[in-house]
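[job 4471] stage=fold_predict status=RUNNING
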Amino acid sequence: MPTPELSNTAMDEAAEQLLTIVKKGANLRYGNPGHLKLAMDVGDLLSPVFNAHGMTATFIPPVLLSAAMEMQEHLDAAQQSFTSAPVWARIRDDDP
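[job 4471] inference complete, writing structure tokens
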């Protein structure tokens, strides 16, 4: 099991990577198929970091939680495929 320090670092690094993806998504036009590819990239980023570090991290950056909720809203009932593109502007550091 990783240490809390290692897990916190992994979460921080994931948050930085996520913000890069969100900026790319925010610059795409409506209907661009790149939205779904970026949504998959978010899932590929979030799933392993939460699986490996979610239980030992003492702090999870709010932007990761915001992204997880936004991705959840756009998954099918089986939670296996995206049915629509995420709204990138909803993924924020200061999500209430």
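[job 4471] summary: The chain has a mean pLDDT of 94.
[job 4471] exit 0
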